[in-house]
Design brief:
Blueprint lengths: L5 H7 L6 E4 L3 E5 L9 E5 L11 H22 L3 E5 L15 E6 L17 H13 L4
Antiparallel strand pairs: 1-2, 2-3, 3-5, 4-5
The structure holds guanosine-5'-monophosphate and zinc ion.
Length: 140
């Protein structure tokens, strides 16, 4: 437990939350400011700021529970689809520094657009250089 972390306080019951699911590894609850109604956050019970330090079993559980909640959102609230979204780091939009997986229910006409731009590589050489730089720094 990290003493100044609001999500650790939610897990400890010191800050109220609307629980959707809980097991020994993860806790899931309604986001207080949903993109669409039913938007859920899945968090590890252990405090981790980044997805990179979450043990594999817990990370797998987060993903699995997120998917199951996405399916439940479709069934329960008649949504068409869902996004799983994780912001790792402030520049990526992470505001709460306890890693969390967003489960965002989506309707075909919900008028919400991720601002997903698409750049291109200047050349095959640039593409190859970038790929090689990533591969050589990829830790096991
Ligand atoms: P981030 O931008 O870090 O990926 O997302 C943080 C999310 O946590 C936001 O969607 C925000 O609405 C949600 N959030 C922040 N504080 C609280 C809280 O006290 N309770 C709940 N249920 N959600 C919160
Ligand atoms: Zn925490």
């Amino acid at each position: 437990m990290s003493s100044n972390c609001i999500f650790c306080k939610i897990i400890a019951g010191e800050i109220p939350s609307v629980k959707i699911y809980e097991d020994e590894l993860v806790y899931a609850f309604l986001d207080i400011s949903p993109i669409n109604l039913g938007h859920v956050l899945v968090i590890p019970k252990e405090h981790h700021q980044s997805s990179s330090t979450v043990p594999e079993a817990t990370a797998g559980r987060m993903f699995r529970v997120g998917s199951r909640i996405g399916i439940a959102l479709k069934r329960a609230l008649d949504y068409d689809a869902f996004n799983l979204h994780l912001a790792d780091g402030a520049a990526a939009g992470q505001v709460v520094m306890h890693v969390h997986l967003h489960v965002v229910p989506r309707g075909a006409e919900d008028n919400f657009r991720w601002n997903w731009r698409q750049l291109s590589y200047a050349s095959d050489a640039e593409r190859a250089e970038i790929a090689e730089a990533i591969r050589t720094r990829l830790k096991p």
